[in-house]
TrEMBL record:
Example GO molecular function: S-methyl-5-thioribose-1-phosphate isomerase activity
Enzyme class: isomerase
E.C. number(s) listed in UniProt: 5.3.1.23
Gene: MRI1
Record keyword Electron transport present: no
Protein name per Swiss-Prot or TrEMBL: Methylthioribose-1-phosphate isomerase
Residue ranges of coiled coil: none
GO aspect biological process, one term: L-methionine salvage from methylthioadenosine
Provenance organism: Coemansia erecta
Listed Pfam families: IF-2B (PF01008)
Lineage: superkingdom: Eukaryota
Subcellular compartments: Cytoplasm; Nucleus
Residues of the site described as Transition state stabilizer: C179
Family to which this protein belongs: Belongs to the eIF-2B alpha/beta/delta subunits family. MtnA subfamily.
Length: 396
């Protein structure tokens, strides 16, 4: 599989896989330095996820899967059973890295099943090498499938949003997004940012009577600044006209500019009824969109949908170190003499200030106008306040 070709439509590549070598773009250094880190083992993968060198729901799952692929590609197993036990043990360990994005748990479940079936179906001929190979093939397929699904999300979402703009008589429309959901958060192209990328890429070919994406606004996404650091960088790389705003400016922005037809965000976990966990700040954006009469659109692959959860109440919300709020991380302007930028931590609150730092929130389905997956665009039935995603996905 040629992964470089698979992600050719994004200039940025968060995950580089060249069997058996895995490296990831260290997102802690962006936008000031573009450095790749080698990931040789599941322990390296776990560290990359916990330390946020890599982040974003689909990317977390794929880095976890491939980190173990890298590890077992270099390893000899005495038996098929030993290989399978090792894989299950390391997948359980990788599942402890971050709690909210369901893609990780979905990948862990699927990959355990691959290892079990390689052991059982090939029995008695199964060997440690054959079980390991089945695992590596499956992890690679997840990488390729994510890019493929994101392009499909991009196409469906672009068509839907352009159609909604035309219905409102807005020929040149704007969008507002949150956090980072692009090539950096996925295997390539992105989800919500993938729709924006697809709209931008399609603009040249669009029929003159169609609606076009004119501008993208995005929030800084405190405290980790995925918007200010990562989305700003991606949009600049792609030459997509864009403006950064404070998280607290979004309501004022929506009131001021009626050509912002929709707020488009990604998801870490969508419950069966459409309740959506995503980066902290998403819920208040949905409320602001509702008040101002704009669409609030969630874009996510079906691997982000947790049909095992009836509603968002059961979603585990990661709470991070309060010091992410009481301090600010940045790079010293002007840099060091050799051109490198120096990373610095500043105190922005009194030393003894208490802080609460949930990394995600849950937006009730009632506020979600549409959910875009690789399978299409889902909207609620007339009069309904929730979705039946099992039905939408053809699972019942
Ligand atoms: O804490 P992060 O940066 O991993 O959070 C990322 C988000 O909340 C994204 O919106 C979500 O994972 C979707 S990424 C396609």
């Amino acid at each position: 599989m040629d992964h470089h070709q698979a992600t050719a439509d994004s200039k940025l590549q968060a995950i580089r896989w060249d069997r058996p070598r895995l490296s990831i773009l260290n997102q802690l250094l962006l936008p000031h330095a573009s450095e790749y880190v080698d990931i040789r083992t599941s322990a390296d993968g776990h560290h990359a996820i916990v330390s946020m060198q890599t982040r974003g729901a689909p990317a977390i799952a794929i880095v976890a899967a491939l980190s173990l692929a890298a590890e077992i590609s270099q390893q000899d197993f005495e038996s098929a059973q030993q290989a399978r036990d090792f894989i299950v043990d390391r997948l359980d360990y990788l599942a402890t890295s971050r709690p909210t994005a369901v893609n990780l748990f979905d990948a862990v479940t699927k990959l355990k099943a691959v290892a079990a079936s390689a052991l059982e179906c090939q029995s008695p001929a199964a060997t440690g090498a054959s079980v390991a190979l089945a695992y590596v093939d499956a992890a690679e397929q997840m990488l390729a499938a994510d890019v493929h699904d994101n392009r499909a999300i991009g196409g469906h979402g672009a068509q839907y949003i352009a159609g909604r703009a035309l219905e409102q008589g807005i020929g040149a429309f704007k969008l507002l997004t949150h956090c980072n959901t692009g090539a950096l958060a996925t295997a390539g192209h992105g989800t919500a940012l993938g729709i924006i990328r697809s709209l931008h890429q399609g603009a040249a070919a669009r029929d003159p009577s169609g609606a076009v994406l004119d501008h993208v606004y995005f929030g800084e996404t405190r405290p980790y600044n995925q918007g200010a650091r990562l989305t700003a960088y991606e949009l600049l790389c792609e030459d997509i006209p864009s403006t950064l705003v404070c998280d607290s400016a979004v309501s004022a922005l929506l009131r001021r500019d009626p050509t912002i037809v929709a707020v488009v965000v990604g998801a870490d976990r969508v419950a069966a009824n459409g309740d959506t966990a995503n980066k902290i700040g998403t819920y208040q954006l949905a409320i602001a969109a509702k008040y101002h009469g704009r669409d609030f659109i969630v874009a996510a692959p079906s691997t982000s949908i947790d049909l095992g959860l009836a509603s968002g109440e059961g979603i585990a919300i990661e709470e991070r170190d309060p010091r992410e709020i009481t301090r600010a991380e940045g790079f010293v302007l002007g840099g060091l003499e050799d051109g490198r930028m120096e990373r610095e931590t500043l105190c922005v609150a009194p030393r003894d200030a208490r802080a609460w730092n949930p990394s995600f929130d849950v937006t009730p389905a009632e506020l979600v106008s549409a959910i875009v997956t690789e399978k299409g665009v889902f909207v609620k039935n007339p009069g309904a306040t929730t979705y039946d995603l099992a039905k939408c996905l053809g699972e019942n």
